[in-house]
Amino acid sequence: LYNERHRLALEELLSGGPDRFLEFLRSEQIPNFLSDDEVRQVGAAAVSLHGGDPALEQTLSTSVDCSSVTYFPDVSDLEPPLLELGWPAFTAGSYRGVTRAVAHFQPGYGEHIYGCKDLLYYSCIFPLQVIAIVTDSLTDLDILKDLQEACTSRSVPVYVLLDQSSSAAFLKMCRNIGVCLDDLQQMRVRTVTGTNFYMRSGVRITGKVHERFMLIDGNRVATGSYRFNWTDGKLNSSNLVELSGQIAEKFDEEFRILYAQSSPLSTRRL
Asked: For 128, phi and psi rounded to 5 degrees?
């Protein structure tokens, strides 16, 4: 819910720094609603929009709470990007099977409950129609190679949505191993952000995407805390839940909403 006092406190943070922020909280008797890490993250995510797009400045001046909302395709004046490589043809509300769930952990244990990285590997080798990924980290060489194999050898469409802040690391990985994304005709990589929060002072705070899931053929999903990088595969404790059946419809819808909000990934740095 919108909180005017919190907005004013954020204005103080962005204009005067952490000390001004804390001073405002004390003077207004507002409990501190940001951790130290969040204070740093908000500061790093803030961008001044003064002197930029006039239409955007008009949005700032007329906005009631100065925050953007979820993308609504029906009312947007921009044409959303097409899933031009193909997408499973489920009609709205069509039955996708009984919902089932299997938990996987990293490191894995036992013969039948294999680890998260193994789950992602098996998820990449069996799809017939599509692989769709949303993640805030994709720097694991093995996962990228599995995706390459799927889209080049088996012509399975692969869509990847990366949090905007992780795009540089992804591009560096591609450069290091000699991967040219433009040559992967069956793969689309785009970037996406979290919610934009617009301040009346002319500052935009952009959130991050913390969702992590891999959607397979529109009826299976792997989702959880596991990040698609080497450290989660070898060092960190994490989990993935493998979902199948009707629950996959919600992830199908979420991916298409995020894809409509996404922007092309510039490969010029490669």
From this structure: -115, -25
